[in-house]
Design goal:
about 300 residues; about 15% strand; alpha/beta; 13 helices; three-stranded mixed β-sheet
Length: about 300
Amino acid sequence: MTHEVWDRHRGLIKNFRLLSSVIIKLFNVIAEWTKNMEMTDTPKVSLIIACYNQPDYLEKILYSLLNQLFVQFEIVIADDGSGQLLAKVIEKFNSKFKYPIQHVWHEDAGFRKTIIVNGAVNRSKSDYLIFIDGDCIVHHQFIARHYLRRKKGVVLSGRRVMLDEEISKSISVEQIKKSLYEKPWFWWKHSEPVERKRGFYLPFIFHIVNFPGRDYWAFGSNFSIHKTDFIEINGYDESIIGRGLEDINISQRFKLKGYRTKRLSNEAIQYHLFHKSDPVPHSKEDEEIIIHPKHFFAECGIIKQ
């Protein structure tokens, strides 16, 4: 056999091995996905939605969740003291999902997201948690991508496209049902240029943006984690009352614990509905304490000392 023929055969063998490896990995992914899609009595994911009033926004979120490719999830509403209109929206959708919606509520006594979200986690039934806010509709692959990339000791965090007031008010239920909000032409003129790059679904960049040694920050309205890992740091710090900084605090404590935070940008995509925000009420001194915790474990968290 000549060297040229041998080189050609060796190249074919190498390509065949590469193709075989790809096919095996593909079959493994399909097998895993099929297994995940089998119906069980216990959901595989608990989606925690932090809400306060805005029933029209919650309705839009729930319609976007009906589009999800992955259906093995329960919804747990962490309601920070909303009125009856929000409860009516939940009741309207309760029979539309595979698992009943859990509505965890406490009285309105100001911004107490840390307390109500911890309460929702306590009520959740699955081993994997995804956290979003009640002002973000989600891509149809949102839950699927969080679940597919899950790993112990790792926090996954995506980002969102900030929509302007005009399109946030005008977007209709029919447009959400058809997932039109996922199309760049739909939101391009209604978002800031710096935000637009976050709206493209590009899951293949995951390993590029998460190369070894690079860390990321958990974003409060779009992150996921194993429940045992969340409880290990004692969840949100319930001593933080008032809007802002609670997410920075928990992200810092993830790092102190040694968890790695990986990017799910351009993969687990959200579209933020416009609303005005109150100023952050914390003093400069309190801000320093909140954003620079000394230990990963919250003294006032899910587990009360």
